[in-house]
Write a sequence for this structure.
């Protein structure tokens, strides 16, 4: 199966290396990496070529990141389409191979997995651990959604149910997932394990104003699709992130306990 990975870029010179190399180094080789650039004014495109990107490159004005993604979907030649933002990267070289195996072994239209949010300047520092879990339709009503960067879907689903709605500025990915999974009930499979590392700082979390816009768009995403959320659904969506932060905190505390257990008397724990 051919896989198309779409990366939208705009002045992404600071992060694009990790994105390009994480795709280039995948063990699965039937991959095209489509870069859709909004006419960057820095050296983004130079770096894309410098690090050996192989695939179509489109650079022209666009109407935002979701418009760029739509352009990528339109020209994608693969049976499977994945979105990898220009500040995200795959954590290991077997991600796409594992995704393809999941498609081949199961009767599904889409595959998703877990995601780790890292510090934008210190990518070894984990801020959130997003364990998506097995899908159930009722989860959307509890504020759940799969991590969109880990979402791989057959191109025919885009062709059948449409691409990203560019009327949404921050929540078009949420609207698309609602449309695909809840409204049209496509067959999805959860692939346990981290598929993407994402740098913190997305549109919906930049400022309180952005969070408010995203909150309003989340509600509109339901109404656009003729769906009715529960009274608590939209509020629970941002609150669900609390558990992701706590998961990292618990992991950190566990690691400290394990290290302390192996310290010798000449190695006091205050060295941690």
């Amino acid at each position: 199966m051919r896989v198309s990975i779409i990366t939208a870029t705009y002045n992404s010179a600071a992060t694009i290396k990790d994105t390009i190399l994480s795709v280039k180094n995948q063990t699965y080789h039937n991959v095209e990496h489509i870069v859709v650039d909004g006419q960057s004014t820095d050296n983004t495109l130079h770096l894309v070529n410098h690090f050996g990107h192989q695939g179509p490159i489109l650079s022209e004005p666009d109407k935002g990141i979701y418009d760029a993604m739509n352009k990528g979907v339109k020209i994608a030649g693969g049976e499977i389409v994945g979105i990898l933002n220009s500040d995200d990267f795959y954590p290991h070289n077997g991600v796409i191979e594992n995704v393809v195996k999941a498609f081949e072994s199961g009767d599904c239209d889409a595959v998703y997995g877990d995601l780790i949010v890292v510090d934008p300047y210190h990518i070894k520092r984990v801020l959130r651990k997003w364990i998506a879990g097995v899908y159930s339709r009722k989860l959307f009503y509890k504020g759940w959604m799969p991590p969109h960067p880990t979402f791989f879907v057959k191109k025919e689903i885009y062709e059948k149910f449409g691409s990203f709605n560019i009327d949404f500025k921050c929540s078009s990915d949420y609207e698309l997932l609602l449309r695909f999974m809840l409204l049209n009930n496509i067959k999805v499979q959860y692939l346990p394990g981290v598929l993407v590392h994402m740098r913190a700082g997305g549109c919906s979390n930049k400022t309180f104003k952005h969070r408010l816009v995203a909150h309003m768009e989340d509600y509109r995403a339901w109404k656009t699709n003729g769906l009715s959320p529960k009274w608590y659904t939209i509020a629970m969506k941002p609150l669900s992130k609390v558990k992701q932060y706590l998961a990292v905190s618990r992991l950190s505390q566990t690691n400290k306990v394990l290290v302390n257990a192996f310290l010798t008397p000449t190695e006091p724990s205050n060295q941690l």
Summary: The longest helix spans residues 233-261. The longest strand covers residues 188-199.
